[in-house]
Each structure stands twice: as structure tokens, then as C-alpha cells.
Amino acid sequence: ELYFKNLSKQKQKVEMEKNGNNHKLRVCVATCNRADYSKLAPIMFGIKAEPQFFELDVVVLGSHLIDDYGNTYRMIEQDDFDIHTRLHTIVRGEDEAAMVESVGLALVKLPDVLNRLKPDIMIVHGDRFDALALATSAALMNIRILHIEGGEVSGTIDDSIRHAITKLAHYHVCCTRSAEQHLIAMCEDHDRILLAGCPSYDKLLSAKNKDYMSVIRMWLGEDVKPRDYIVALQHPVTTDIKHSIKMFELTLDALISFNKRTLVLFPNVDAGDKEMVRVMRKKGIEHHPNFRAVKHVPFDQFIQLVAHAGCMIGNSSCGVREVGAFGTPVINLGTRQTGRETGENVLHVRDADTQDKILHALQLQFGKQYPCSKIYGDGNAVPRILKFLKSIDLKEPLQKKFCFPPVKDNISQDIDHILETQSALAVDLGGTNLRVAIVSMKGEIVKKYTQLNPKTYEDRLDLILKMCVEAASEAVNLNCRILGVGISTGGRVNPREGIVLHSTKLIQEWSSVDLRTPISDVLHLPVWVDNDGNCAALAERKFGHGKGIENFVTLITGTGIGGGIIHQHELIHGSSFCAAELGHIVVSLDGPECLCGSQGCIEAYASGTALQREAKKLHDEDLLLVEGMSMKNEEVVSAAHLIQAAKLGNTKAESILRTAGTALGLGVVNILHTMNPSLVILSGVLASHYVNAVKDVIHRQALSSVKTVDVVVSNLADPALLGAASLVLDYTTRRIY
């Protein structure tokens, strides 16, 4: 015997020298309530079993020392642990203030205890307010902290407390792979995270086959059989106390109606717990023949009870964590455990607002048997944790290091930018409509206003000002900060001065018009003006297919034909602001007359106006309508009728559209041979009808070196408005405060 003792001592000495640490690690384990002790006890037993490596100090506080909650410190003594210090830290009360005062009282008392103990490391469990006081005290007193069960997600204030303790802790023991990933995402050092599993599983997975009938009879009565009773454990939700008390009342009503023997455990010490106890007494639960109401059940016996229950109901983390190890059906009520990983044995009733809903859940779950789940552990957590503790080098710097992901250079921001959505007022002056929109930085049209475009200059300018003022006022209510006004208009524009030099015949009385000055004077905002084709190109550059493309051309097909050219990422205006008048590229010397006064322009063939002209000719000759089409007497013939007729097999309409597509395609070929862009974007209402024809012409007519160009249809719903907005957003957001 002596020989083996000496041999054992030599092995221990060799192991300690191998670890390079002759100093016993002084570990302080602080436990606050029955729940955290069930997780900490297996670790405490492991530490106690290796006195050559560890010195264990046990501090007891919180509800352990309160008679109303069963004086659960006694089970710690029964487990043969020496309690070094007992701290009465719970301030009696029934609201949130009592929890705050309890944390404050613990913070007042703990420094003296920690000064006397001088632990190398403190082990803290979970997400209770008492644990937050422990972690705060230890961190401020430069004591290393090992946090058990960090990185998990659940409902209520527990989430915030758990993550706050994570930030204070130096080392982390987590139970699931997801929790480990959450800790890494929270910038914790991966080398200080141990995926061990839940310590309570070390006891759970070996406990089920022990004598359980005596335990069931002790707590529920002699006549109760396995799988024929319910365990209920429900706690107040501190972020919504009234609702959680109402839900507890409904739960008790459902359990009374269900008429099965039920063991009801008293709730945790939390704001609202006393009210829940009053609800129990009001309903006579303590004297009801079907109920047994208890303050505390020792963990070993509690395991046996839930392992052989017909169902567990409530909102305790035990239901979604530990009970899965036995496959016992669980009904999880409310939001307290929202986000927890659960096995298939858990049925969630998140909106438990009626007795019938809870009763139905009981009917679905009671008596079932699910496969056992090991999400939270495999029964080997404690050996891993002890090995992790032995690996801690006390010579390492105490200061925590956070592993932040790489971030872009910081740009300081004005408070208005933080609180409000940076936006632009976009104005689109079309041949028919006048539109104003609030457009966000991401290209979202927050709100849009549309009116018919007046025929006279005075009426048009008055309407623009009125609509802009209305939109700017509404932007305040929508929490949008307007950075400026961008205007998209037909015609030739001097963008440097904000003046429309002259317009097409589609917009009357719109030459030599200064738009910048009157709008800027009224709104006290900077104003940018540009041609609608150029705006379409800018919209594609910022929000559409042209994003990141160095050289591309946009063709806008609508009432007229316009466009814009982006060369080396910049918009081309030309020496007299006439660049990209793509609608007036001549593709036939004797073609139809264009609104510009010339003949054979693309616009004279492929614009909405040109198609309407041809549709009217067919209609006058009674050649437009085919089977499946009808028109009212007062209905105006439009390009849409021509397109519809072509789709229904009208050969004359098909020929006109084919000619229009060919004309547009020839214009694109000229652009390719002139600018050599890598992308052509067709925008506007007619784009989808022309894209295939344009590709065919390129294939037939273009030089081989440009045939590979991409031709796509724009995916932007409002290129003119988005382009007008980009005039503002691209310029104003270049500023760095």
C-alpha cells in the first residue's frame, strides 16, 4: 500500500513539473441558486478530487440562503463541501428595483471576501443578476474569471447579462458549437474558449437507470406511475412581468383541466416571483389533490423526476437543455428561452395567451417518448474543464485581448447622419408627368409624388417648387435628411450652371431656364440639373448593371430616345453639353422626319412617339386591330396597342417593330464603333421589346472586335429618378467631416 502511495505521489509530481506549475491553482466557485449549483457541483467534485492541483473555496450567496426558496445551501453541505463564506445579498421586493439593489448589495459585500480569499481564478456560471455582481467584482479586483455557459442565446434580460459577463470573463467554457461561434463573433480569443459540453450532463447521462420509483413516490405519492405525471417549472420574465404572471395563471388553469398529477416548483428569485406564488395560492395549488407544490428538489432526485415524467411544462432552461437527455416531452412557454438550441422533444408555445392553446399542447405532448438528445453534452465535460484549468498560465498578462475583425478606416460622422437616413430629393421632368421622390442612399424610393407636367413655364416651375417643399416637409416625418435636389429633364442642359439650354418639342416653354437658383432659394439646398439620358447612365453606375464598370453606354427608350456615356467611370458631357444625344444618330438618309427637324434619326423609328405615329396610321387604315384586341371610341391609339397587335400576330405591326429594333441596333453598332464600351444597357419601357433585335443587328453588322459586347435590359424601375438622386448623393457624400 505504501509503495503504491509513493508511486502515486511521484506520478503527481512528474505531472506538475510537466505542466511547469508547482503552484496549486486557487479556485473560487461562487454559487447563487439551485440551478447554477447543478452545473457547478460536478466541477467542484472534480476540483476536490485533485487536491494536488487545486485549492477550492466555495462562496454561497443569493437565494441559497433564503428560507422561501428552500435554504438550498444545505445540499452543498450535504455534498461535503466546506462553505468558506455565506453572503446574504437578496433584497426582498417584487419589482425590478429589488434586483438592482441585490446586485448593489453583492457588490458592497464581495470585495472583502475576495480580498481574504485571494483566488487565482473565479468560476462564474450563467446569466443571473447575482452572477453579474460576481463577475464585476472579480474583474475590477484583477481576478481571472472562468465563465460557464457563455455564448448561448435566450430571451429576456438574461441574454444581456450573459453577454456582459462574457465581456468581463478571461476564459470561457461553452456547451455547443453554436455558442462557441457566438463567442468568437463577440471577439473573444479562440484560444481561451473551451467547447466542453454542459457539466450537468456528466451526472445526467449516468443517472437515469438508478432507483427512481422511490423518488417518484416521495414527491408525487404512492399511486403515481412513471410517464403519468407532469413537472411544471415556470419563472417570471423580468422584461414583461405582467404578461408572464398572466401566462402562469393560464398554465395552472390548463393543468387543472388536464387532470394529471403535477409537481410544481416555486419560481426563481426574480422580479415578479412573489406574485406568481400568490397566483398559486389563490388557485389553491398547495392543497389541490392533483398538485404537489415544493420550493426545492435536490438535483439528483429532480433528474429522476424529469427523466420519467409524462411531460415537463414551463419556461425553465432545464426544460430545453437537460431534459432532452432523456427524451422527455417538453412544452416551452413564452419567450424566456427564445433562441436556445433544442431537441425535437420541445414544443414551443411562444404566444401562450389562452388556456386552450396550452391545454392543446399538453394533449399533444403528454406521454410521448422522443429520442435522447445530446446537443448540450456527452458526459465528459468535467475532465475537459479540469484539463483546461491546469493549462492556465498565471504568468500571462491579466489584461484581456479581443480579436476584432478587420474594419475599414473610420470616418467620423455628424450626429445627424447617424440618426437620420441620408437622402436626396429627385425630380424627373418627363414629356407627360412631373415626378418628385425622396430617395435614400441605398437607392430606395422612400416616397414618390406624381403630377401631370404643366404646359407653361410658370405653372411648371410653381408646381416643381410646391412638390419639392411638400416632399422636404414629409422627409422630416420619415426621418430622412435631404442632402440636396437632383433634377432630370429632357433637352440640352448646362450642369455647371443648372440651366436648361433648350428642350425638345416634348416639353414646351423650356429653353434658357435657370432651375438651380429658384429651387435653391426656396429650399436652401444645393441643386444639380442634368439631361434625363445622362441621369439614366448615372443611375446604372450607382445602382444598376453599370456598378463597377469602367466604360458603358445607356440607351433610354421611352417617349423619346436618349442616353448617357460613362467613360473611365465618368459621365461624358461634351464641349457644348451635347454628348450622348444618342436618339439623334442618323441611321437612314431618307427616313421619317424626327422632332429635331432631321430625318432618319433613331428616335424617328424607335421612340414611343414614333411607334404611336405608326400605330395611328395602321388604325386609320383599319389595319391595327386583330382578333383578341378591342378599343373604346374615345381611347387614344398608343405604342402599347402596336406592341399588343404584334404579339397577337399582326404582321404589319411586327414589321414596324422589327424596323424600329433594327434602327436602334444600327445606332448601337455606331456607338460600339465610336466608343467601344464593354456594356450596353437598354433602359425604359420599350427596352425589353428591342433587346433581341439589337443583339441580332450587332451580330450581323458590327466588327468582330466589338461583337462580344454585353447588351442587357436595365433592372432599375425608375432610372430617371435614381439618376437625379445620384447627382446629389455622389457629390455630397464625398465630404468627410
UniProtKB/TrEMBL annotation:
Q: In which pathway does it act?
A: Amino-sugar metabolism; N-acetylneuraminate biosynthesis
Name of this protein: Bifunctional UDP-N-acetylglucosamine 2-epimerase/N-acetylmannosamine kinase
What superkingdom does the record give?
A: Eukaryota
Give the residues annotated as active site: D532
Question: Which family is annotated?
Answer: In the N-terminal section; belongs to the UDP-N-acetylglucosamine 2-epimerase family. In the C-terminal section; belongs to the ROK (NagC/XylR) family.
Give residues annotated as binding an N-acyl-D-mannosamine. Answer: R492, T504, D532, E581, H584, E603
Annotated EC: 2.7.1.60, 3.2.1.183
- Chief location category: cytoplasm
Gene name linked to the record: Gne
The reaction(s) annotated as catalysed by this protein in its Swiss-Prot or TrEMBL entry are:
an N-acyl-D-mannosamine + ATP = an N-acyl-D-mannosamine 6-phosphate + ADP + H(+); UDP-N-acetyl-alpha-D-glucosamine + H2O = aldehydo-N-acetyl-D-mannosamine + UDP + H(+)
Per the UniProt entry, what species is this protein from, by scientific name?
Answer: Odontophorus gujanensis
Q: What keywords appear on the UniProt entry? A: Allosteric enzyme, ATP-binding, Cytoplasm, Hydrolase, Kinase, Metal-binding, Multifunctional enzyme, Nucleotide-binding, Phosphoprotein, Transferase, Zinc
* GO cellular component assignments: cytosol
Locate the residues binding Zn(2+): H584, C594, C596, C601
What region holds the UDP-N-acetylglucosamine 2-epimerase domain? 53-390
